Amino acid sequence: MSVAAAPLLLCHICSRWRAIAFDTPKMWASLHVSVENYIIHTKNKSAAIVDWLTRSAPLPLSLSISCRDPLGYAHAYCKASLRLLTQFSARWTSLQYIDLPIQSFLQLEETVDAPLLRDVHITCRSSGSVVGHGHILDSKLFSGTRVSVTSLDPASLVLERLQDPSYRWEHLTDLTLDLLGPSEPDWDDHNTYRYLDYETVYRLLECCINLRSLTVPIALGDTLTQTLEVPALESLTLIVAGSECEGLEELVDQLVMPKLTKFHLINLEFLDYTSPATVESLELLAENFPLISDLRLHLPHDDTVETLHTVLANFSPHLQKLSLGLAGEAYPYVSKFLRADELFQNLAPDGVVIPGLDLTELSLDLEYVPDALWMEFLWKHLNHHSRLSKFHLKLWSPHRCDTSEPPPAFPDVDPFLTRGLDVSVENCIRLPSKGSPWQGIKDR
């Protein structure tokens, strides 16, 4: 039984279970409202929403509202749904706003007082839905909250305001400008994305002087000559366009971030980490930002073992969380892969290969490897009494999902769990032209 379905299912068992459900506010502390073009906003539906949220009192609320209506016929009913939800805004802690008119969201702050709001996520699947509303980040609802906006055109959200050199978003502290991915219905090709160029990202950091966390799609290239101090920034995630790394070294050298502890570098085509420019960029990153304890990189080639050794040696011993992704069959132009046995040897807990490396969390995205290999690696950490407390392994299985045969079962991970090592293994299957009932098999 899912958490979302629990209240309704329990209410249909018997009157006793219904009474228990009604007297358990935690069951009603989250709600998703879907506005469709064929659903008329009736009084019964309004009453059901109010009753649901009333039962959750006095707990904080997690809400989401969506409108999957490309023709725009349902927009008239959005305002009515929002009016109902705003009655409970004093208890809002999380809000997801999916494919509704941006103008309706901007009008919320005129009537909403949400002192507990900490997370806001806005999704705009249509690039036209944000046109003319580049000032959405002005909303005071974002003050002190974690803000995430997912769009086909993230640049349109900031370009209008950033044209004014004196403009400031002092209320923003945690900002994510994300891209619609391949799982989204309207996704065609990542080249249709509109990445922010370096100058725009530079201006964004200059504008958001209180920013602690930033995730942004960036097209690396020409950089500026002037350095910029970002005193409050602790976390930086760059979603990079293309496979080239030109400009990364200049970016790392020009941004002064004394509090930076988290750096993630994500790209759709896998950067060439074997190029001298990339190696120098990562070495400079470790030199300029010695406090980095959370690092994420993608690795494509067989001869990146030496590069990985060089990079991690520069970041240890401060490095605590490490996430490594490898290219696979989904990227057919990549012909070589980092050997898993050499990777595990580099990350061994004895400190022989990389002195001082003592991770607490490790996440690996690998081609299929024998179970014995990663289990032996974990036993080494346990027997060595290392600090590793969390291990996640995502395996791209060679098992064909167009057959009726299930994928092989995972080995028992309970011996690791009982000794305090949180282990999760995910088997991802290469999809053919159609889906499979085995897609997403997981074990924990």
Automatic annotation (TrEMBL):
Question: Which protein, by its recorded name, is this?
Answer: F-box domain-containing protein
In terms of superkingdom, the source organism counts as Eukaryota
